Amino acid sequence: MHDPRLKHVIVVGGGLAGLAAAETLALPLERVATAAHPACTVTLVEPTGRLGGVVATVRQDGWLVERSADSFFAGRPEAIAMVERLGLRSELVGVDPRVRRALIYRDGRLFPVPAGFRLLAPGRISSIVTSPLLSLRGKLRLLAERFVPRRTADLATVSSDESLEQFAVRRLGREAFERLVQPLVSGIWTADPAQLSMAAACPEFFEMERRFGSLSSGERMRLKHTGGEDEATGARYGQFVTLKSGMETLPTVLGERLHCAGVRRITARAQRLVQTESGWELFLQAVGNGSHAAEVPPQSLLCDAVVLAVPSGVAAQLLAAVDQPLAQELAGIQYAGSAIVSLGFSQSDVQHPLDAAGLVVARTAGRKILAISFSSSKFPARAPLGAVLLRAFVGGALDPTTALLDDSRLQSLVIAEVSALLGIRVPPQFVQIDRWAGAMPQYHVGHVQRIERINRRLAGIAGVALAGAAYEGVGIPQVIASGQAAAARLV
Ligand SMILES: Cc1cc2nc3c(=O)[nH]c(=O)nc-3n(C[C@H](O)[C@H](O)[C@H](O)COP(=O)(O)OP(=O)(O)OC[C@H]3O[C@@H](n4cnc5c(N)ncnc54)[C@H](O)[C@@H]3O)c2cc1C
Question: Ligand 1, residues 476, 480, 482: which to mutate, most atoms within 8 A of Cβ?
Fold first, then answer.
Protein backbone atom coordinates (compact mmCIF):
# COMPACT_ATOMS: atom_id res chain seq x y z
CA MET A 1 0.00 0.00 0.00
CA HIS A 2 1.42 3.38 -0.94
CA ASP A 3 2.37 6.07 1.53
CA PRO A 4 -0.15 8.87 0.76
CA ARG A 5 2.51 11.44 1.65
CA LEU A 6 4.62 10.30 -1.28
CA LYS A 7 3.09 12.30 -4.11
CA HIS A 8 5.74 12.50 -6.80
CA VAL A 9 8.54 10.02 -7.45
CA ILE A 10 11.14 10.34 -10.21
CA VAL A 11 12.61 7.18 -11.70
CA VAL A 12 15.96 7.86 -13.38
CA GLY A 13 16.79 5.30 -16.10
CA GLY A 14 14.41 3.52 -18.46
CA GLY A 15 16.07 0.09 -18.46
CA LEU A 16 14.20 -2.90 -17.04
CA ALA A 17 15.11 -1.93 -13.46
CA GLY A 18 13.67 1.58 -13.87
CA LEU A 19 10.59 0.32 -15.68
CA ALA A 20 9.92 -2.26 -12.95
CA ALA A 21 10.26 0.48 -10.31
CA ALA A 22 7.90 2.77 -12.26
CA GLU A 23 5.37 -0.06 -12.63
CA THR A 24 5.42 -0.82 -8.90
CA LEU A 25 4.89 2.87 -8.07
CA ALA A 26 2.32 3.77 -10.71
CA LEU A 27 0.43 0.48 -10.89
CA PRO A 28 0.59 -1.02 -7.39
CA LEU A 29 0.56 -4.79 -7.85
CA GLU A 30 -2.03 -5.27 -5.15
CA ARG A 31 -4.26 -2.87 -7.12
CA VAL A 32 -5.42 -1.16 -3.94
CA ALA A 33 -4.80 2.39 -5.08
CA THR A 34 -7.78 4.16 -3.58
CA ALA A 35 -8.60 7.77 -2.81
CA ALA A 36 -6.93 7.34 0.57
CA HIS A 37 -3.89 5.58 -0.88
CA PRO A 38 -3.48 6.73 -4.46
CA ALA A 39 -0.70 5.44 -6.67
CA CYS A 40 1.85 8.22 -6.73
CA THR A 41 2.67 10.42 -9.70
CA VAL A 42 5.70 9.01 -11.47
CA THR A 43 8.11 10.71 -13.87
CA LEU A 44 10.57 8.61 -15.84
CA VAL A 45 13.78 10.31 -16.97
CA GLU A 46 15.67 8.56 -19.78
CA PRO A 47 18.07 10.21 -22.23
CA THR A 48 17.93 7.84 -25.23
CA GLY A 49 14.38 8.33 -26.46
CA ARG A 50 13.69 4.60 -26.14
CA LEU A 51 12.92 2.23 -23.28
CA GLY A 52 14.62 -1.03 -22.32
CA GLY A 53 18.22 0.09 -21.71
CA VAL A 54 20.52 -2.65 -22.97
CA VAL A 55 17.54 -4.87 -23.92
CA ALA A 56 16.92 -4.21 -27.61
CA THR A 57 15.83 -6.23 -30.65
CA VAL A 58 16.49 -5.57 -34.33
CA ARG A 59 13.99 -7.06 -36.82
CA GLN A 60 15.09 -6.80 -40.44
CA ASP A 61 14.33 -8.78 -43.65
CA GLY A 62 13.37 -11.95 -41.77
CA TRP A 63 16.27 -11.76 -39.25
CA LEU A 64 15.43 -11.22 -35.59
CA VAL A 65 18.59 -10.22 -33.74
CA GLU A 66 18.84 -9.52 -30.02
CA ARG A 67 21.32 -6.72 -29.43
CA SER A 68 22.09 -7.97 -25.89
CA ALA A 69 20.00 -10.34 -23.74
CA ASP A 70 18.38 -13.09 -25.81
CA SER A 71 16.48 -14.90 -23.04
CA PHE A 72 15.92 -14.99 -19.30
CA PHE A 73 15.82 -17.49 -16.45
CA ALA A 74 12.26 -18.64 -15.74
CA GLY A 75 13.22 -20.38 -12.49
CA ARG A 76 12.70 -17.08 -10.65
CA PRO A 77 9.24 -15.52 -10.69
CA GLU A 78 9.79 -11.78 -11.38
CA ALA A 79 10.25 -11.69 -15.16
CA ILE A 80 7.64 -14.40 -15.86
CA ALA A 81 5.12 -12.62 -13.63
CA MET A 82 5.76 -9.34 -15.47
CA VAL A 83 5.27 -11.07 -18.84
CA GLU A 84 1.96 -12.45 -17.57
CA ARG A 85 0.78 -9.10 -16.16
CA LEU A 86 1.43 -7.56 -19.56
CA GLY A 87 -0.65 -10.22 -21.33
CA LEU A 88 2.39 -11.62 -23.13
CA ARG A 89 2.19 -15.23 -21.95
CA SER A 90 1.53 -16.56 -25.47
CA GLU A 91 4.79 -14.90 -26.55
CA LEU A 92 6.91 -17.10 -24.27
CA VAL A 93 9.02 -19.77 -25.91
CA GLY A 94 11.70 -22.02 -24.38
CA VAL A 95 15.03 -23.21 -25.76
CA ASP A 96 14.36 -25.98 -28.30
CA PRO A 97 14.64 -29.26 -26.31
CA ARG A 98 16.77 -30.78 -29.10
CA VAL A 99 19.62 -28.33 -28.48
CA ARG A 100 19.71 -28.00 -24.68
CA ARG A 101 23.47 -28.55 -24.39
CA ALA A 102 26.65 -26.55 -24.86
CA LEU A 103 29.92 -27.26 -26.66
CA ILE A 104 33.42 -26.27 -25.59
CA TYR A 105 36.16 -25.38 -28.06
CA ARG A 106 39.74 -26.27 -27.12
CA ASP A 107 42.76 -27.84 -28.83
CA GLY A 108 41.21 -27.10 -32.22
CA ARG A 109 38.13 -29.28 -31.52
CA LEU A 110 34.58 -28.99 -30.22
CA PHE A 111 33.64 -31.14 -27.21
CA PRO A 112 30.21 -31.48 -25.62
CA VAL A 113 30.01 -30.38 -21.96
CA PRO A 114 29.64 -33.69 -20.04
CA ALA A 115 25.91 -34.40 -19.61
CA GLY A 116 24.66 -33.22 -16.22
CA PHE A 117 27.64 -30.91 -15.55
CA ARG A 118 26.02 -27.63 -14.45
CA LEU A 119 28.42 -24.68 -14.44
CA LEU A 120 30.38 -25.92 -11.38
CA ALA A 121 28.46 -28.96 -10.26
CA PRO A 122 29.12 -32.47 -11.58
CA GLY A 123 25.76 -34.23 -11.87
CA ARG A 124 26.55 -37.56 -13.57
CA ILE A 125 29.71 -39.57 -12.91
CA SER A 126 29.35 -41.68 -16.07
CA SER A 127 29.41 -38.66 -18.37
CA ILE A 128 32.60 -37.38 -16.74
CA VAL A 129 34.28 -40.79 -17.03
CA THR A 130 33.52 -40.99 -20.75
CA SER A 131 34.15 -37.31 -21.64
CA PRO A 132 37.01 -36.75 -24.10
CA LEU A 133 37.33 -33.19 -22.80
CA LEU A 134 39.36 -34.19 -19.73
CA SER A 135 42.55 -36.26 -19.29
CA LEU A 136 42.46 -39.35 -17.05
CA ARG A 137 44.20 -37.35 -14.33
CA GLY A 138 41.74 -34.46 -14.70
CA LYS A 139 38.78 -36.86 -14.47
CA LEU A 140 40.13 -38.56 -11.33
CA ARG A 141 40.68 -35.18 -9.70
CA LEU A 142 37.17 -34.03 -10.63
CA LEU A 143 35.64 -37.26 -9.34
CA ALA A 144 37.55 -36.82 -6.06
CA GLU A 145 35.58 -33.58 -5.49
CA ARG A 146 33.32 -35.28 -2.97
CA PHE A 147 36.36 -36.01 -0.73
CA VAL A 148 37.66 -32.42 -0.72
CA PRO A 149 36.95 -31.06 2.78
CA ARG A 150 34.38 -28.30 2.95
CA ARG A 151 35.68 -24.80 3.63
CA THR A 152 33.76 -23.47 6.57
CA ALA A 153 33.06 -19.83 5.89
CA ASP A 154 30.58 -17.22 6.91
CA LEU A 155 29.19 -15.33 3.92
CA ALA A 156 28.95 -12.16 5.99
CA THR A 157 32.70 -11.65 6.35
CA VAL A 158 34.91 -10.39 3.52
CA SER A 159 37.59 -12.96 4.27
CA SER A 160 35.06 -15.73 3.62
CA ASP A 161 34.45 -14.69 0.01
CA GLU A 162 36.49 -16.49 -2.58
CA SER A 163 37.08 -15.97 -6.29
CA LEU A 164 35.39 -18.35 -8.67
CA GLU A 165 38.80 -19.54 -9.86
CA GLN A 166 40.01 -20.29 -6.30
CA PHE A 167 36.76 -22.10 -5.50
CA ALA A 168 36.69 -24.15 -8.72
CA VAL A 169 40.38 -25.13 -8.57
CA ARG A 170 40.07 -26.05 -4.88
CA ARG A 171 37.03 -28.25 -5.41
CA LEU A 172 37.33 -29.57 -8.97
CA GLY A 173 41.04 -29.27 -9.82
CA ARG A 174 42.87 -26.93 -12.22
CA GLU A 175 42.19 -28.98 -15.36
CA ALA A 176 38.41 -29.03 -14.86
CA PHE A 177 38.57 -25.31 -14.14
CA GLU A 178 40.51 -24.51 -17.33
CA ARG A 179 38.69 -26.88 -19.67
CA LEU A 180 35.14 -26.67 -18.32
CA VAL A 181 34.39 -23.97 -15.76
CA GLN A 182 36.40 -21.05 -17.17
CA PRO A 183 34.89 -21.22 -20.69
CA LEU A 184 31.33 -21.62 -19.33
CA VAL A 185 31.79 -18.71 -16.93
CA SER A 186 33.38 -16.33 -19.41
CA GLY A 187 30.49 -17.07 -21.79
CA ILE A 188 27.99 -15.98 -19.11
CA TRP A 189 29.63 -13.19 -17.09
CA THR A 190 32.39 -11.97 -19.46
CA ALA A 191 34.29 -11.79 -16.16
CA ASP A 192 37.77 -12.55 -14.88
CA PRO A 193 37.27 -15.74 -12.82
CA ALA A 194 40.26 -14.79 -10.63
CA GLN A 195 38.26 -11.73 -9.47
CA LEU A 196 34.63 -12.87 -9.77
CA SER A 197 33.07 -13.25 -6.30
CA MET A 198 31.59 -16.64 -5.46
CA ALA A 199 29.39 -15.10 -2.76
CA ALA A 200 27.90 -12.53 -5.16
CA ALA A 201 27.87 -14.34 -8.51
CA CYS A 202 27.39 -18.02 -7.56
CA PRO A 203 25.85 -18.11 -4.08
CA GLU A 204 24.00 -21.32 -4.91
CA PHE A 205 27.23 -23.30 -5.38
CA PHE A 206 28.90 -21.60 -2.40
CA GLU A 207 25.93 -22.69 -0.29
CA MET A 208 25.98 -26.22 -1.76
CA GLU A 209 29.48 -26.79 -0.39
CA ARG A 210 28.42 -25.48 3.00
CA ARG A 211 25.27 -27.59 3.25
CA PHE A 212 26.25 -30.82 1.57
CA GLY A 213 30.05 -30.84 1.90
CA SER A 214 30.54 -31.20 -1.84
CA LEU A 215 29.11 -30.01 -5.14
CA SER A 216 28.55 -33.56 -6.40
CA SER A 217 26.47 -34.45 -3.32
CA GLY A 218 24.61 -31.12 -3.52
CA GLU A 219 23.78 -31.59 -7.19
CA ARG A 220 22.64 -35.18 -6.57
CA MET A 221 20.33 -33.96 -3.82
CA ARG A 222 18.98 -31.19 -6.06
CA LEU A 223 18.24 -33.66 -8.85
CA LYS A 224 16.59 -36.05 -6.38
CA HIS A 225 14.26 -33.24 -5.28
CA THR A 226 13.40 -32.28 -8.86
CA GLY A 227 12.98 -35.94 -9.89
CA GLY A 228 15.98 -35.51 -12.24
CA GLU A 229 13.87 -33.31 -14.49
CA ASP A 230 16.09 -30.33 -14.00
CA GLU A 231 19.32 -31.95 -15.19
CA ALA A 232 21.29 -29.39 -17.14
CA THR A 233 24.38 -29.44 -19.29
CA GLY A 234 26.36 -26.20 -19.14
CA ALA A 235 23.58 -23.78 -18.23
CA ARG A 236 20.00 -24.70 -17.25
CA TYR A 237 18.74 -24.32 -20.82
CA GLY A 238 15.43 -25.99 -19.95
CA GLN A 239 14.60 -22.99 -17.78
CA PHE A 240 15.52 -20.19 -20.19
CA VAL A 241 12.77 -18.53 -22.19
CA THR A 242 12.44 -15.67 -24.63
CA LEU A 243 9.62 -13.77 -26.33
CA LYS A 244 8.77 -14.88 -29.86
CA SER A 245 8.77 -11.32 -31.17
CA GLY A 246 12.01 -10.50 -29.36
CA MET A 247 13.05 -9.39 -25.89
CA GLU A 248 12.37 -5.71 -26.60
CA THR A 249 8.64 -6.45 -26.62
CA LEU A 250 8.81 -6.58 -22.81
CA PRO A 251 10.00 -2.97 -22.19
CA THR A 252 7.95 -1.68 -25.15
CA VAL A 253 4.64 -3.08 -23.87
CA LEU A 254 5.46 -2.09 -20.29
CA GLY A 255 6.26 1.44 -21.52
CA GLU A 256 2.83 1.62 -23.20
CA ARG A 257 1.16 0.39 -20.01
CA LEU A 258 2.99 3.03 -17.96
CA HIS A 259 2.00 5.74 -20.46
CA CYS A 260 -1.67 4.74 -20.07
CA ALA A 261 -1.25 4.82 -16.28
CA GLY A 262 -0.14 8.46 -16.54
CA VAL A 263 3.60 8.05 -16.07
CA ARG A 264 5.24 11.16 -17.53
CA ARG A 265 8.30 10.53 -19.68
CA ILE A 266 11.09 13.08 -20.00
CA THR A 267 13.89 12.64 -22.51
CA ALA A 268 16.87 14.12 -20.72
CA ARG A 269 20.02 13.12 -18.89
CA ALA A 270 19.92 13.37 -15.10
CA GLN A 271 22.95 15.34 -13.93
CA ARG A 272 22.76 16.10 -10.24
CA LEU A 273 20.55 15.44 -7.25
CA VAL A 274 20.16 18.03 -4.51
CA GLN A 275 18.26 17.70 -1.24
CA THR A 276 15.62 20.38 -0.62
CA GLU A 277 13.67 21.21 2.53
CA SER A 278 10.83 18.89 1.60
CA GLY A 279 12.37 16.40 -0.83
CA TRP A 280 14.71 16.37 -3.80
CA GLU A 281 15.57 18.45 -6.85
CA LEU A 282 16.92 16.60 -9.90
CA PHE A 283 18.85 18.70 -12.41
CA LEU A 284 18.51 17.68 -16.05
CA GLN A 285 20.51 18.14 -19.23
CA ALA A 286 18.74 18.22 -22.60
CA VAL A 287 19.84 15.65 -25.19
CA GLY A 288 19.62 16.01 -28.95
CA ASN A 289 18.44 12.50 -29.89
CA GLY A 290 15.38 10.30 -29.72
CA SER A 291 11.80 10.68 -30.76
CA HIS A 292 10.94 12.93 -27.82
CA ALA A 293 13.87 15.29 -28.49
CA ALA A 294 11.60 18.07 -29.74
CA GLU A 295 10.28 18.48 -26.18
CA VAL A 296 12.62 20.79 -24.27
CA PRO A 297 12.96 19.29 -20.78
CA PRO A 298 12.77 21.47 -17.70
CA GLN A 299 16.10 22.41 -16.11
CA SER A 300 15.16 20.60 -12.96
CA LEU A 301 12.32 18.62 -11.36
CA LEU A 302 11.14 18.56 -7.77
CA CYS A 303 9.99 15.33 -6.14
CA ASP A 304 9.45 13.58 -2.83
CA ALA A 305 11.62 10.60 -3.69
CA VAL A 306 13.83 9.24 -6.44
CA VAL A 307 14.82 5.80 -7.75
CA LEU A 308 18.24 5.78 -9.43
CA ALA A 309 18.04 2.89 -11.91
CA VAL A 310 21.20 3.78 -13.79
CA PRO A 311 24.69 2.18 -13.95
CA SER A 312 26.42 2.57 -10.56
CA GLY A 313 28.98 5.07 -11.93
CA VAL A 314 26.11 7.38 -13.01
CA ALA A 315 24.45 6.95 -9.59
CA ALA A 316 27.79 7.92 -8.02
CA GLN A 317 27.87 11.18 -10.02
CA LEU A 318 24.25 11.99 -9.16
CA LEU A 319 24.87 11.40 -5.44
CA ALA A 320 28.30 13.04 -5.24
CA ALA A 321 27.00 16.12 -3.43
CA VAL A 322 24.55 14.12 -1.28
CA ASP A 323 26.84 11.52 0.31
CA GLN A 324 30.49 11.33 -0.74
CA PRO A 325 31.34 7.96 0.91
CA LEU A 326 28.27 6.40 -0.77
CA ALA A 327 29.30 7.86 -4.13
CA GLN A 328 32.78 6.39 -3.67
CA GLU A 329 31.41 2.92 -2.95
CA LEU A 330 29.22 3.15 -6.08
CA ALA A 331 32.10 4.36 -8.23
CA GLY A 332 34.16 1.40 -7.02
CA ILE A 333 31.96 -1.15 -8.85
CA GLN A 334 33.78 -1.92 -12.09
CA TYR A 335 32.23 -2.67 -15.48
CA ALA A 336 33.50 -4.64 -18.49
CA GLY A 337 32.67 -4.11 -22.14
CA SER A 338 31.95 -6.53 -24.94
CA ALA A 339 30.78 -6.64 -28.53
CA ILE A 340 28.43 -9.05 -30.28
CA VAL A 341 28.86 -9.76 -33.98
CA SER A 342 25.71 -11.41 -35.35
CA LEU A 343 26.20 -13.35 -38.58
CA GLY A 344 23.61 -14.89 -40.89
CA PHE A 345 24.43 -17.72 -43.29
CA SER A 346 22.55 -20.06 -45.56
CA GLN A 347 22.12 -23.29 -43.59
CA SER A 348 23.63 -25.31 -46.44
CA ASP A 349 26.87 -23.31 -46.18
CA VAL A 350 27.47 -24.34 -42.54
CA GLN A 351 29.09 -27.76 -42.15
CA HIS A 352 28.42 -28.01 -38.41
CA PRO A 353 24.88 -29.27 -37.61
CA LEU A 354 24.44 -26.52 -34.94
CA ASP A 355 22.81 -29.15 -32.72
CA ALA A 356 23.49 -27.27 -29.47
CA ALA A 357 22.53 -23.96 -27.86
CA GLY A 358 25.99 -22.69 -28.66
CA LEU A 359 29.66 -23.02 -27.91
CA VAL A 360 32.08 -21.45 -25.47
CA VAL A 361 35.81 -21.09 -26.06
CA ALA A 362 38.48 -22.12 -23.54
CA ARG A 363 40.94 -19.31 -22.86
CA THR A 364 43.80 -21.69 -23.58
CA ALA A 365 42.52 -22.07 -27.17
CA GLY A 366 44.06 -18.68 -28.04
CA ARG A 367 40.96 -17.38 -29.86
CA LYS A 368 39.42 -13.93 -29.55
CA ILE A 369 35.79 -15.03 -29.51
CA LEU A 370 34.44 -15.98 -26.09
CA ALA A 371 31.29 -17.76 -27.22
CA ILE A 372 28.90 -18.28 -30.12
CA SER A 373 25.17 -18.53 -29.52
CA PHE A 374 23.34 -20.63 -32.14
CA SER A 375 20.31 -18.30 -32.05
CA SER A 376 18.26 -19.94 -34.79
CA SER A 377 18.81 -23.38 -33.21
CA LYS A 378 17.63 -22.17 -29.81
CA PHE A 379 14.56 -20.17 -30.79
CA PRO A 380 12.12 -20.12 -33.73
CA ALA A 381 11.96 -17.38 -36.38
CA ARG A 382 15.38 -15.85 -35.74
CA ALA A 383 16.45 -16.24 -39.39
CA PRO A 384 14.69 -16.41 -42.78
CA LEU A 385 13.74 -19.88 -44.03
CA GLY A 386 16.83 -21.95 -44.89
CA ALA A 387 19.19 -19.58 -43.06
CA VAL A 388 20.90 -19.66 -39.66
CA LEU A 389 21.75 -16.87 -37.21
CA LEU A 390 24.89 -17.03 -35.05
CA ARG A 391 25.87 -14.43 -32.40
CA ALA A 392 29.57 -14.28 -31.55
CA PHE A 393 30.79 -12.53 -28.37
CA VAL A 394 34.18 -10.84 -27.94
CA GLY A 395 35.74 -8.69 -25.22
CA GLY A 396 34.98 -9.08 -21.53
CA ALA A 397 37.11 -8.29 -18.50
CA LEU A 398 40.11 -10.31 -19.72
CA ASP A 399 40.23 -8.77 -23.21
CA PRO A 400 39.38 -5.06 -23.10
CA THR A 401 40.76 -4.27 -26.59
CA THR A 402 39.10 -6.57 -29.15
CA ALA A 403 35.63 -5.06 -28.64
CA LEU A 404 37.14 -1.66 -29.49
CA LEU A 405 38.43 -2.65 -32.96
CA ASP A 406 36.86 -0.68 -35.83
CA ASP A 407 33.90 -2.31 -37.58
CA SER A 408 35.77 -3.76 -40.53
CA ARG A 409 38.61 -5.31 -38.47
CA LEU A 410 36.20 -6.65 -35.85
CA GLN A 411 33.95 -8.13 -38.52
CA SER A 412 36.83 -9.81 -40.42
CA LEU A 413 38.31 -11.25 -37.22
CA VAL A 414 35.00 -12.68 -36.03
CA ILE A 415 33.99 -14.05 -39.44
CA ALA A 416 37.38 -15.80 -39.75
CA GLU A 417 37.12 -17.40 -36.29
CA VAL A 418 33.44 -18.40 -36.56
CA SER A 419 34.06 -19.86 -40.03
CA ALA A 420 37.05 -21.89 -38.79
CA LEU A 421 35.15 -23.27 -35.78
CA LEU A 422 31.96 -24.22 -37.64
CA GLY A 423 33.25 -25.16 -41.10
CA ILE A 424 31.93 -22.24 -43.14
CA ARG A 425 33.58 -21.29 -46.46
CA VAL A 426 31.40 -18.44 -47.72
CA PRO A 427 30.91 -14.87 -46.47
CA PRO A 428 27.83 -14.17 -44.33
CA GLN A 429 24.59 -12.91 -45.90
CA PHE A 430 23.91 -10.74 -42.88
CA VAL A 431 26.18 -8.92 -40.38
CA GLN A 432 25.27 -6.78 -37.38
CA ILE A 433 27.69 -5.38 -34.81
CA ASP A 434 26.51 -4.38 -31.35
CA ARG A 435 28.95 -2.76 -28.95
CA TRP A 436 28.47 -2.73 -25.21
CA ALA A 437 31.20 -0.56 -23.74
CA GLY A 438 31.20 -0.75 -19.93
CA ALA A 439 27.79 -2.44 -19.83
CA MET A 440 28.47 -5.49 -17.63
CA PRO A 441 28.96 -4.85 -13.88
CA GLN A 442 31.70 -7.03 -12.42
CA TYR A 443 30.96 -8.59 -9.05
CA HIS A 444 34.48 -8.77 -7.64
CA VAL A 445 35.43 -10.56 -4.43
CA GLY A 446 33.96 -8.49 -1.57
CA HIS A 447 30.95 -7.32 -3.64
CA VAL A 448 28.41 -8.61 -1.10
CA GLN A 449 30.10 -6.59 1.64
CA ARG A 450 30.23 -3.50 -0.60
CA ILE A 451 26.46 -3.79 -1.15
CA GLU A 452 25.95 -4.03 2.61
CA ARG A 453 27.97 -0.82 3.10
CA ILE A 454 25.95 0.88 0.33
CA ASN A 455 22.68 -0.19 1.95
CA ARG A 456 23.82 1.07 5.36
CA ARG A 457 24.58 4.53 3.95
CA LEU A 458 21.34 4.57 1.95
CA ALA A 459 19.37 3.80 5.10
CA GLY A 460 20.40 7.24 6.37
CA ILE A 461 19.08 9.06 3.28
CA ALA A 462 15.29 9.26 3.14
CA GLY A 463 13.73 9.22 -0.30
CA VAL A 464 16.55 7.74 -2.40
CA ALA A 465 16.67 4.15 -3.67
CA LEU A 466 19.01 2.35 -6.06
CA ALA A 467 18.11 -0.31 -8.61
CA GLY A 468 19.80 -2.11 -11.47
CA ALA A 469 22.27 -4.74 -12.52
CA ALA A 470 25.15 -3.34 -10.46
CA TYR A 471 23.93 -4.60 -7.12
CA GLU A 472 22.28 -7.97 -6.54
CA GLY A 473 22.22 -9.88 -9.81
CA VAL A 474 22.71 -9.06 -13.47
CA GLY A 475 20.05 -11.42 -14.87
CA ILE A 476 16.75 -9.96 -16.05
CA PRO A 477 14.59 -11.41 -13.21
CA GLN A 478 17.06 -10.08 -10.59
CA VAL A 479 17.14 -6.65 -12.25
CA ILE A 480 13.31 -6.49 -12.28
CA ALA A 481 13.32 -7.57 -8.61
CA SER A 482 15.77 -4.77 -7.80
CA GLY A 483 13.45 -2.17 -9.38
CA GLN A 484 10.47 -3.51 -7.46
CA ALA A 485 12.43 -3.57 -4.19
CA ALA A 486 13.66 0.01 -4.72
CA ALA A 487 10.07 1.21 -5.22
CA ALA A 488 8.92 -0.75 -2.16
CA ARG A 489 11.71 0.80 -0.09
CA LEU A 490 10.38 4.29 -0.86
CA VAL A 491 6.79 3.55 0.06
C1 LIG B 1 25.54 -7.97 -24.02
C2 LIG B 1 24.64 -8.38 -22.88
C3 LIG B 1 23.97 -9.59 -22.92
C4 LIG B 1 23.13 -9.97 -21.87
N5 LIG B 1 22.46 -11.15 -21.94
C6 LIG B 1 21.57 -11.47 -20.95
C7 LIG B 1 20.73 -12.62 -21.08
O8 LIG B 1 20.77 -13.35 -22.09
N9 LIG B 1 19.84 -12.88 -20.07
C10 LIG B 1 19.75 -12.07 -18.96
O11 LIG B 1 18.94 -12.38 -18.07
N12 LIG B 1 20.49 -10.96 -18.84
C13 LIG B 1 21.39 -10.63 -19.81
N14 LIG B 1 22.12 -9.49 -19.70
C15 LIG B 1 21.96 -8.66 -18.50
C16 LIG B 1 20.69 -7.84 -18.50
O17 LIG B 1 20.22 -7.60 -19.80
C18 LIG B 1 20.97 -6.50 -17.82
O19 LIG B 1 21.60 -6.72 -16.57
C20 LIG B 1 19.72 -5.67 -17.58
O21 LIG B 1 18.94 -5.55 -18.74
C22 LIG B 1 20.15 -4.30 -17.06
O23 LIG B 1 19.02 -3.50 -16.78
P24 LIG B 1 19.19 -2.13 -15.98
O25 LIG B 1 17.89 -1.46 -15.99
O26 LIG B 1 19.87 -2.39 -14.68
O27 LIG B 1 20.29 -1.30 -16.81
P28 LIG B 1 20.27 -0.72 -18.27
O29 LIG B 1 19.56 -1.60 -19.20
O30 LIG B 1 21.70 -0.39 -18.54
O31 LIG B 1 19.43 0.64 -18.14
C32 LIG B 1 19.96 1.80 -17.57
C33 LIG B 1 19.25 2.99 -18.21
O34 LIG B 1 19.74 4.18 -17.58
C35 LIG B 1 19.83 5.18 -18.58
N36 LIG B 1 20.75 6.22 -18.12
C37 LIG B 1 22.10 6.20 -18.07
N38 LIG B 1 22.56 7.38 -17.61
C39 LIG B 1 21.49 8.16 -17.34
C40 LIG B 1 21.33 9.49 -16.83
N41 LIG B 1 22.37 10.26 -16.50
N42 LIG B 1 20.06 9.97 -16.69
C43 LIG B 1 18.97 9.20 -17.00
N44 LIG B 1 19.09 7.93 -17.48
C45 LIG B 1 20.32 7.42 -17.66
C46 LIG B 1 20.34 4.41 -19.79
O47 LIG B 1 20.11 5.15 -21.00
C48 LIG B 1 19.55 3.13 -19.70
O49 LIG B 1 18.34 3.18 -20.41
C50 LIG B 1 22.97 -9.09 -20.75
C51 LIG B 1 23.62 -7.85 -20.72
C52 LIG B 1 24.45 -7.49 -21.77
C53 LIG B 1 25.12 -6.14 -21.74
Answer: 476
